[in-house]
Amino acid sequence: MRFRYAFQKIVDLKASEKTQAEWELSHAVGKLQVEEQMLSGLHSEKSELQTNLSSATQETVTVSDLMHYQTYLNHIDRRISQKDADVRSAQQRVNHERQQLTAKMVEEKVWTTARDKAKRLFVHAEQRKEQGAIDEMATMRSKRLSY
């Protein structure tokens, strides 16, 4: 007889939910990496702008040009602040998705363990039935031979 677990659909659902949580975590990690790269790019741009500004002060530069540099530098600083917030938000999402994945893994493990236990009990019961049948056949044969 073949083993059929009554709650197999739940086990499959839990496995599917875990896979979905893995995808969501992967997506969140990818978004975090993009945000971090963008932040890194802004820091590089700011550094380059500061280098240009310091070299420009050694040359003849108008006050208007210096004000443009400063305005753009302030703009970059605001973008960096916003991107820092975006990175923190992405990190929080990654942490949340990790927790979700951990919960889904635990749920799947609980149901898989229950299925495995049910299968062990089924196999044990089948083996006992088979042994009983073999013992019955041996008893019948023994009785036949003794007559």
Keywords:
147 residues; mainly alpha; Helix Hairpins; 0% strand; rod-shaped
The CATH class designation is Mainly Alpha
Structural class: mainly alpha
Cα shape: rod-shaped
CATH second-level architecture: Orthogonal Bundle
* Low-pLDDT runs: none
Number of helices: 2
Percent range for helical residues?
Answer: over 70%
Give the strand tally: 0
**Mind telling me the C-alpha Rg?**
34 Å
CATH topology assignment: Helix Hairpins
On the 0 to 100 scale, the average pLDDT is 93
For the largest beta-sheet, the strand count, sense and barrel status come to: none
| Strand residues, percent | under 5%
Number of discrete domains: 1
Question: N-to-C terminal Cα separation, in Å?
Answer: 35 Å
N-to-C SSE string, H for helix and E for strand: HH
Can you offer a commentary on this structure?
The mean pLDDT is 93. The chain has one domain (17-119): Helix Hairpins, CATH 1.10.287.1700. The chain is built from two helices and no strands. It is rod-shaped and about 125 Å long. The protein is mainly alpha-helical and 147 residues long. The chain has helices at residues 8-57, 63-146.
